[in-house]
Amino acid sequence: MEDKKLFQIGDVARMFHISTGSLRHYEQAGLLKPEYIDQDTGYRYYSVRQFEILNTIRYLRALDMPLEQIDDFLKNRDIDVIEDKLMKQKELVARKQRELAIIEQKIEHRLDQLRDAMNSELDVIQLKKVSSCRIVWLKDSLRPKSYLDLEYAIRRLEENQTESVVFLGKVGVGISKENLLAGRFDQYDSVFLVLDAEDSYKGTVEQHPEELCVSMCFCGSHKEAGAHYEKMMEYIEKHKMEVTGFSREITMIDYGITNNTDKFVTEILIPIKCA
After folding, report:
1. What is the number of domains present in the chain?
2. For position 49, which CATH number holds?
3. Which region among 102-111, 152-161, 178-187, 255-264 has the lowest average model confidence (pLDDT)?
4. Computed over its alpha carbons, how large is the radius of gyration of the chain?
5. What CATH number does residue 146 fall under?
6. Cβ neighbours of residue 77 under 8 Å, at least 6 residues apart?
7. Taking residues 208-222, what's their average pLDDT?
8. Residue 62 and residue 144 share a domain
């Protein structure tokens, strides 16, 4: 009879477009044992009647169902059981789709930031309108000498990140208005996170209105920022502008992207009011 015909493990793997390793894994998990194992050679053989089981396993694995749940279904096959498992799997797929959509948006934001950094004019002071945004502040006095000095503060900001997906928000440091006016450009008063539109955050979030800022991009990171702050404050004083709040300093290209420090790009924004 046709269902008595046996097929070697390699033949079955080719027919179902899976690896022999997967078939051995299913065997070890107790999902699908070979119809016959040659004791002399160790060759494994499967029968046609096992194809339906293998197809079911492959289908449920394509839905990302864990092997334990597949094993439970194969031992208790029932319409209500499979309906329940498929509904739960559908919910899981929907959640993953939402997570992937967020990741896609974050990647797009990161690409925009990279392109902005690569196309920026360096060491040029200009006026820039900065769109309204949501900011999370961590008031913490620090003097970062390298990006590593910011890592602990960043981790503290991330503690309240409700989504477990890739974290790609804009993180930076700020100098208070008082320290800016006093010329203390190495005294950072806070670390901040600019939330993307899709981000949810459990902590206190501050809604920033659209602001007019004096802006400068330069090659380097936070430890090189002092001289650039000095130039910007001279520009502000010369043009009779008034500083209205914290600076925002973000390294747009850093060690997360390249090991070549000559390619680092940092932007400083100082909110101002024209006379």
Report:
1. 2
2. 1.10.1660.10
3. 152-161
4. 29
5. 3.20.80.10
6. none
7. 93
8. no
